[in-house]
Amino acid sequence: MTRVNQPDSLLSELRDIKRRLRALETRGGPSAAQTAQAAASTPVPDSDDETPER
């Protein structure tokens, strides 16, 4: 088994990811809910609006 796939390595990687996520959340970056809400409220142009005029 490679070192990357060993259970201890995977647990360490998971802890590191969780630590980074907490740091991002406390830093004041947009939350996942805010990002999803902003994406949902962004208007999507109609296909007619993107057609170049000839």
Topology:
Blueprint: H1 7-27, H2 32-41
Protein traits:
2 helices; 54 residues; mainly alpha
Characterise this structure.
- The protein has 54 residues and is mainly alpha-helical.
- The chain has a domain at 1-28.
- Helices cover 57% and strands 0% of the residues.
- The chain has two helices and no strands.
- The chain has helices at 7-27, 32-41.
- The longest helix is centred in the first third of the chain and has 21 residues, at 7-27.
- The N and C termini lie far apart (61 Å).
- The relative contact order is 0.07.
- The mean pLDDT is 76.
The major beta sheet can be summarized as:
none
Q: Tally the helices: what do you get?
A: 2
Kindly state the mean pLDDT as a whole number?
76
> What oligomeric state best describes the polypeptide chains here?
single chain
Count of strand segments: 0
Percent helix among the residues?
A: 55-70%
Radius of gyration: 21 Å
Strand content: under 5%
Outline type: elongated
Order of helices and strands: HH
* Poorly predicted residue ranges: none
What distance separates the N and C termini?
Answer: 61 Å
User: Structural class from helices and strands?
Assistant: mainly alpha
Could you provide a short overview of the structure?
The protein is mainly α and about 55 residues long. Helices cover about 55% and strands about 0% of the residues.
